[in-house]
């Protein structure tokens, strides 16, 4: 097992239940990326009662609250201890290659040979920054969501945030509040209200079964796996954080960053349609919830159906911004993440640098599995509560593989 | 998803088959479109299109298509054809409309009529060099669709949104493109 985050530890727990001998290699401490690669104010998007792992469920005093990062680290560490997970910390895997009948895992403290490998190093190891980064004038400080900690570490003055997923909208809100004027560049995005009909929107995602939809039931799986994270924040006041809210707070909204030419950032004029698509998709999802509530006689338990105002389009959003004028002092690239597979010496990566896998069963390397990637086996695969079902499926497959009963994918 | 009874004149099976085939043939998906233009007199010019490159080979329209462009008489021109900026609207309108038909077919929506009206706003201070802060091109383009179809208003809005999302001309108009102009 490579990686001792929640997904790796969930697998470890299920492996132990099956008495399958294993070790968990971790480059740092348990829950390392939650310790080291998150900004200060971040809280989980899922309410506490949804923080579930195999054999663990939340029993604290604030089921509807959202965990801070230290609380997440504590939860995962306690889970590791309670499951007696065989974690070897401060062990960085440097290469994974194929040998006769199994795999050779090279680490910075020696070599391990094994029959099977589980990749649980996560889907967010590297900040994905578009090539236009190269054209940013030198005086502007560039940071990614990995480097960002809090507004005070940014230079004073204007901030351009590129990307309007959960990361982009949360940072836009926090930085605008710090007194730095924020310009938010919005491309394709997923709009969601924090609460719907009196319940948290993620309650709806889970209860209605949307989150349990399997990868092999989804029409356009590639698209589902590329979907940006929804515009949500785990704020104690359960506030919605969409483009309308940010505009009311004074954030300037511009279209997708299309190019930087001669020191000028050029934004797409297609903002109106990005809003239309996000509004339509949100309405379609809410209608799915309504149908489900109606079919399950829940209409009396939840509040009345709601519809939210469409995203207001700025009268004439700016199409260009001079990055040399001093108006913008820093740029935050909230343009997504990708896994780091540079250490894999296996023919399992496609031309776009993505792992070839069928629901976590890696194609081209029998006995190698992945967990914790977007829509790996279900829509909820990257959330903490999604780890258990995926772990049970994959350990089931692994047990058959070790017994000699499965053909390689 | 496509329903047998829906017919918008779109050969969806062929399109979907082509999409699948091109997934495994990235080179074949690289197309080059061409146009030629010959000056006539004044602001009058004649442009033609016929050949293009795609699917790894030289390709050709069935015949050569020709377009006259000029400026109206209030520009002291002879008005032999549409202005080039009107042709841009034509390109945008026809691309979005073709997209509407294709997406409707894919979603099983029968169209009865699709009409689009386009308006592009432009301040001549730009092209006349009167005010350097005014751009030459359109500062705003508005497309209004009137669609009669077997679908709800929401489904029609979704159809038009998806057509924009997949439109080449919409992308060309809304996003910057590198342009190289050479004299040989």
Overview of the molecule:
The complex is a heterodimer of chains A (409) and B (184). Chain A is an alpha/beta fold. Chain A contains nine helices and 22 strands. Chain A has helices spanning 6-17, 32-36, 69-82, 166-177, 201-207, 221-226, 243-248, 271-295, 387-402; strands at 24-25, 87-88, 93-99, 102-107, 110-114, 117-119, 126-127, 141-144, 158-162, 182-185, 195-196, 199-200, 252-254, 257-261, 264-267, 320-322, 328-333, 337-338, 344-345, 357-358, 361-362, 368-370. Chain A has a five-stranded parallel sheet with strand order 8-17-9-10-13. Chain A is globular, with a radius of gyration of 22 Å. Chain B has 184 residues and is of the alpha+beta class. Chain B folds into two domains: 1-28 and 83-174, K homology (KH) domain (GMP Synthetase, Chain A, domain 3, 2-Layer Sandwich), CATH 3.30.300.20; 31-81, no CATH class. Chain B is built from four helices and five strands. In chain B, β2 and β3 (57-69) form a beta hairpin.
Individual helix count of chain B: 4
Described by strand count, sense and barrel closure, the largest sheet of chain A is: 5 strands, parallel
Mean pLDDT value of chain B: 94
Average of pLDDT of chain A:
95
């Amino acid at each position: 097992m490579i990686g001792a985050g929640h997904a790796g530890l969930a697998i470890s727990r299920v492996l132990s239940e099956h008495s399958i001998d294993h070790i968990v290699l971790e480059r740092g401490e348990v829950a390392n990326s939650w310790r080291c690669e998150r900004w200060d104010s971040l809280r989980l998007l899922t309410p506490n009662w949804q923080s579930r792992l195999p054999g663990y469920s939340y029993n604290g005093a604030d089921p509807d609250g959202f965990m801070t990062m230290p609380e997440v680290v504590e939860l995962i560490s306690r889970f590791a201890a309670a499951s007696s997970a065989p974690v070897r910390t401060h062990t960085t895997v440097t290469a994974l290659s194929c040998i006769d009948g199994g795999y050779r895992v090279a680490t910075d403290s020696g070599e391990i040979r094994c029959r099977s490998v589980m990749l649980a190093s996560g889907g967010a190891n590297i900040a994905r920054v578009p090539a236009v980064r190269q054209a940013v004038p030198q005086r502007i400080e560039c940071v990614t969501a990995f480097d960002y900690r809090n507004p005070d570490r940014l230079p004073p003055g204007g901030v351009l945030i590129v990307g309007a997923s959960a990361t982009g909208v949360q940072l836009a809100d926090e930085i605008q509040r710090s007194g730095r004027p924020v310009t938010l560049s919005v491309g394709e995005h997923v709009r969601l209200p924090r609460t719907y009909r009196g319940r948290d929107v993620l309650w709806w995602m889970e209860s209605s079964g949307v989150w349990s939809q399997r990868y092999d039931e989804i029409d356009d799986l590639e698209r589902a796996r590329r979907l940006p994270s929804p515009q949500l924040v785990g704020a104690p006041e359960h506030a919605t954080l969409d483009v309308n809210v940010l505009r009311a707070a004074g954030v300037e909204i511009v279209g997708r960053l299309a190019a930087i030419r001669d020191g000028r950032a050029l934004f797409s004029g297609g903002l109106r349609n990005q809003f239309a698509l996000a509004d339509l998709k949100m309405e379609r999802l809410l209608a799915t919830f309504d149908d489900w509530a109606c079919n399950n006689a829940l209409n009396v338990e939840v509040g009345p159906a709601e519809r939210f105002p469409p995203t207001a389009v700025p009268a004439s959003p700016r199409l260009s911004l001079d990055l040399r004028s001093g108006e913008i002092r820093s740029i935050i690239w909230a343009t997504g993440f990708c896994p780091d597979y540079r250490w894999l010496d296996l023919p399992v990566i496609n031309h776009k640098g993505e792992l070839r896998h069928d629901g976590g069963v890696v194609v081209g390397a029998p006995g190698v599995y992945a967990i914790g990637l977007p829509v790996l086996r279900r829509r909820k695969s990257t959330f903490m509560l999604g780890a258990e079902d995926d772990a049970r499926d994959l350990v089931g497959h692994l047990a058959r593989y070790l017994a000699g009963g499965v053909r390689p994918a | 998803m496509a329903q047998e009874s829906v017919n918008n004149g779109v050969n969806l099976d062929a399109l979907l088959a082509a999409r699948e085939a091109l997934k495994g043939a990235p080179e074949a998906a690289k197309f080059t479109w061409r146009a030629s233009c010959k000056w006539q007199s004044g602001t009058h010019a004649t442009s033609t299109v016929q050949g293009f490159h795609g699917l790894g080979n030289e390709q050709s329209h069935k015949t050569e298509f020709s377009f006259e462009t000029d400026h109206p008489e209030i520009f002291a021109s002879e008005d032999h054809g549409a202005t080039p900026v009107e042709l841009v609207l034509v390109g945008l309108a026809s691309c979005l409309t073709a997209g509407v038909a294709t997406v409707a077919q894919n979603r099983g929506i029968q169209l009865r009529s699709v009409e689009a009206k386009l308006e592009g706003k432009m301040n001549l201070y730009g092209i006349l060099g009167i005010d350097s802060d005014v751009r030459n091109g359109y500062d705003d383009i508005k497309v209004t669709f009137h669609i009669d179809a077997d679908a709800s208003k929401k489904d029609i809005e979704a159809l038009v949104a998806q057509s924009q999302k997949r439109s080449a001309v919409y992308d060309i108009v809304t996003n910057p493109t590198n342009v190289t102009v050479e004299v040989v």
